[in-house]
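ugh finaly. both done.
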Amino acid sequence: MNDRPDISRIVEDSLCHCCGACAGVCPDDAISFEETVTGFLFPVVDPQKCSACGSCLTVCPGGSFGDALTGVLPDDPFTGNSLRSFAGKSTDERIYANSQSGGIASELLIHGLRSGNIAGAVVVTMKPGAPPRPEAYLASSVEEIVEAQKSKYTPVPLLEVLSRLDQIPGKVAIVGLSCHIHGLIKVCDLYPGLNDRIGYMIGLICDRSLSCASIDYLAMKAGFDGDEEKVFIFRDKSCGGYPGDVRVSSADGRSTILRDIARRRIKPYLTPPRCHLCFDKMNVLSDVTIGDPHGIRSADRKNGESICIARSEAGLKLVESAIESGTVTLREIPYSDIVRGQKIDRKRGAWRGFCEEWLSLEHPVPDYYTSIKKYAETTAGHSHGSIENALSLNSFSDRQELLTWLKKNDRKDLLLNIVRSVYTYPLQAAHKLVSITRRGST
């Protein structure tokens, strides 16, 4: 990868996960992000502006972790370390009702603002439009943080915002996925002075993202025209409670709800290949990790809660301070329960299986593969379908052709799931078929 001093080769090798670090450090403003036909968001280098300084390649965690990241990996990179772990929710009814799960990430940011520990935060909002797309921005008020609630499951070049940090004097918190945290650590290694500006790294648990085409497909499935101005929410808890369904709304107030299964069914088709190469579902290098309470028996499955893992001393101090202030209500739970609920052992096998098959097709893997594979048993053939789906997305000539193909395969998967249910749970399958018939194709 050293034969070219920019991140173009990373994109060509399918190793870019759109963290935005390259654009955040580019001194020439030579990097922009363009959406591909398949909905992936990749950096593009303008050769007329690029001075070939190599900074973008230096901070990119997609192909190489380097010493900056390798040196701080925990003993088990799949689980990471936990000082204390919790489950709970916000005590503010407005924030809790507007949250995706328990509102803990938002409350930690708000508490940080009010206590003076941070002056702002790098967050993501879903910007309405035709089409709607997520957008990273600097929040410096409670209202701006509330506006950024709920997950956006598509790529966001979050770290390009680093070039605008001077807009907020004082420390800022960064809320991001593991790829964003990896990129941030490499940027801070190249520019050590940036460490003084980062108050907290709030990591979100991530089980792969979706391409931007998922928004277009779900909006189409909800009956909205591609040129129509829309508001899009991947998981809206106000639609029947936790975990929330997909909501698509128009400017004139028309709104359609899609069951959450509609989002989950297209995940195998629209997951970027680079996501399968990532071992760090648990965001092990963050100060605090937040996620859904999968597998936690005491969790509120009706209204939602969050799990909260304090990984560093700074993160633990923030969480404990938020508890003492009454901002959140959290109860301590064993970290082993969280790891089991997140199915990390299955993640190990799936990760190594995908990497080995990816290598067998002569695709490059990140440099950490050699050192991390010892933590995962080989699962030969485990991810073959995922590789086929990931590679098939490159064959479409335009977005409409992709959406038509998705519609065909989505329906096929739906019927296949019903057939599987008939052999295991006949009564439930019959009820499901009746429900689908009543709702129509939506």
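ok and the 2nd:
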Amino acid sequence: MNRKPNIIYIYADDLGRGMLSCYGQKHFKTPNIDRIAGEGMRFERAYGCAYCAPSRASLLTGAHDCHRGGWTMTQGGLYDQVTRGRMPMEELSELIHTVSLGASKGQHFLAEIPRESGYATAQIGKLEWGFATTDAELRRHGWDYHYGYYDHAQCHGFYPPYVFENGTRVDIPGNTREDFGKSARTESPENREERWNREGRAVYSQDLFDEKILEFLRGQSAKGEPFFLYHPSQLPHGPIIIPEIDPAVRDHPDLTEFEKEYASMVLRLDRTVGLILDELARLGIDDNTLVLFASDNGHEPYYVQEGRADPSKNVHTGETYDNVQTKFTSEASGDVFDGNDGMSGKKFSNWEGGVRLPFLVRWPGVIEAGRVSEHLYANYDLMATIAEITGARCPDTSDGISCLPELCGDVERQASHEAIIFASRQGPGLVTPDGWKLKQATLPGDNLYQLYHLPEDRKEENDLKFEERGVCERL
């Protein structure tokens, strides 16, 4: 670690860990993402938030999402006014800055940490804050260069008529749909026909991101300056749409076409990871680049169709989940992929399947290849970790703990959280290093607590709040 390492953080969207073959996916392989795990390390106990906006805010501020106040999330879809010519960009930016709670004077953001140590910073992909952002906000967050979407609602479409590059609108030839090429969320013959209609859908957004990522890597390599690249992808967030079905699943006998399309979105992200790793090697900077891969929250099955997966109910009994006594599992909901890796729950919930993430780290010469870590990691630990790696000071407002000792194999020096914490639609939850989990479970007119010991009950089936009253009261 004599030279400052380059850092790349790849952030998948709604990617359940069970969708990756390094975490057990059986229907297809994700060879490039697996390569990060095989040549680096895989975390078994990594946590994010229950859905996208708080996860991204937590990541960027180093703070967990159970603080009272502090963040406001602007409304998605505001940029439709720009798309339809009803409001100039300058007026919309002013509106966003008026209604959102801006950063306080002393507040620090993730990109500012490495930048203070001489790093060039870039954010390429989905917007990194709230549901609508601006050039001024991105610059305030510490990004020297940014390219991509500024509106979360537009991110549900993969054929943008325009994106933004350092605040300048860049029109994409051939992408003419004002809805950004969105598709229907459920499967039907009509929806399938519309989904594959390429009129106004010429350039897929991930192709745009790939091009800019490679440009940035080549430019920074030529300069010889350390960099921090953050790539929040849209993939594999739905609605499902992909330019082509990947050959790896095209003839799979156990998958429907809709499921093959979703799998192809995961594999499209895997291809981007391969492009990045190969380019690092080609540029000769692979041995001095730390690559991290994670998701914002747990699994969300977008491949809903009659007789197959249904995220809201038990497909065998027809019972609708209350997310307290009954909850999503792959078996009950008919999820052929087992995207939440055999756990209970999915996106928006405080069950393990909603908040427990894939987290992979590769750092040649520093991380021992093929390691599996049981260290309790939260996504708000990233700021503290990058601060220690780059030699910067971690802000006092951060709730994070650096996991650099764990990455280096110095487990004796690795500090631990007393507990990590996250919010959800059902209330908060916390997990301790020794595997106790307390979660709030809200039903109409009633607030409950549930207690699980995850090492023996990964699926959260045995509530121990009465048997372990002392543990429950302490937590």
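summary for the 2nd one i guess: The longest strand covers residues 436-443.
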